[in-house]
Amino acid sequence: MQDIDNLVNLLSLRLPSPIQKLPVDWRPESNLSIYVKRDDLIHPIISGNKWRKLQGHLTRSPQLSKQAHPKHIVSFGGGYSNHLHSLGYCCQKLGIQLHAIVRGNYQLTPTPMLQDIQNWGANIHYVTKLEYQKRHDNDYLEQLGKTYPEALIIPEGGSDKHALEGIANIIEELDPEANNPFDYILCPVASGGTLAGLNQAIYDWKLNAKLVGIAVLKGEGYLEELVEKLQFPDVPKATILHDYHCGGYAKAPDYLKDFCSQFNAQYDIPVEPVYSGKLFYALKQLIESGYFPAQSRILLLHTGGLQGARL
Ligand SMILES: *Cc1c(COP(=O)(O)O)cnc(C)c1O
């Protein structure tokens, strides 16, 4: 099995990621203590939570018990996928051939992300929306398995049960056996893997922290379902708040952009409007509305994604 320390060295990852206090002055009478787990600092290209999930895949896959890493990986995404971008970089560094199945017709106008992964040696297969819809079908996956024998097939966004084991490392880095210092843990939610992994780990470690997911897209009902499918049956449902997607995935109205630039100017924690901007924006709104009881200790997971800010 691929040794995790070896992967961390090969990819020059900063782990464990640091925790930093965020000295906000929103509703000072509440006396809240806010901390940020800086998974964005794990690596400048490998987006924080994408590394966590990928770690679950690279170290737990049964194929990997036989060989150091897979020779091929097949995965899926759109033209702006942070997952494919992170994966493309990792594959180049680890000498793995990536086959990226990309939804849409970007041959003539590849996005900056797609250009990067192409430069890193990925084979990109552009497929129609209709073919892309089959990405979870057993028949389709079986066919892919025949086309790319011995390839590791990783689902869209990297989110599945293997990914959860990688995400659990975030909670383990908080030293949960020794202390349980947080009343709340907040993270952004898109495909649900991060939230499901945190929820599972909080349950496994019997922490009292309340987990709150901030939906970055319009998905009330749908996101809850995704997370529930990923979790093990006994784990209680995680809370997802749907008031902070600011109009939908990758939508950035002026009030959100203004918030991000103000935040970036005031604190030494960079945010972008797709994920972390919405997370911190939600934090501010929640604090100002009195959501958190006085004296609460709150941890935000900064999941990275800053390479996407160039768009
Ligand atoms: C993909 C991504 C997310 C969403 O995580 P999910 O596990 O898909 O919910 C959050 N933040 C960043 C920076 C991402 O790239």
Describe it for me?
The chain has 311 residues and is α/β, with parallel strands linked by helices. Helices cover 37% and strands 16% of the residues. It has a six-stranded mixed beta sheet with strand order 1-2-10-7-8-9, sandwiched between helices. Helix 4 links the parallel strand 4 and strand 5. Helix 2 crosses helix 7. The longest helix is centred in the first third of the chain and has 13 residues, at 48-60. 43% of the residues are buried. The model has no long low-confidence stretch (mean pLDDT 93).
Please trace the helix and strand order, writing H or E for each element. Answer: HEEHEHEHEHHEHEHEHEHHE
Major sheet: size, sense and barrel closure? 6 strands, mixed
Strand order of the largest sheet: 1-2-10-7-8-9
- Cα-based radius of gyration, to the nearest Å: 19 Å
User: What structural class should be given to the helix and strand makeup?
Assistant: alpha/beta
Question: Spans with pLDDT under 50 lasting ≥5 residues?
Answer: none
Shape: globular
Query: Which hetero compounds are present in the coordinates?
Result: pyridoxal-5'-phosphate
| Oligomeric state of this protein | single chain
Q: Helical proportion?
A: 25-40%
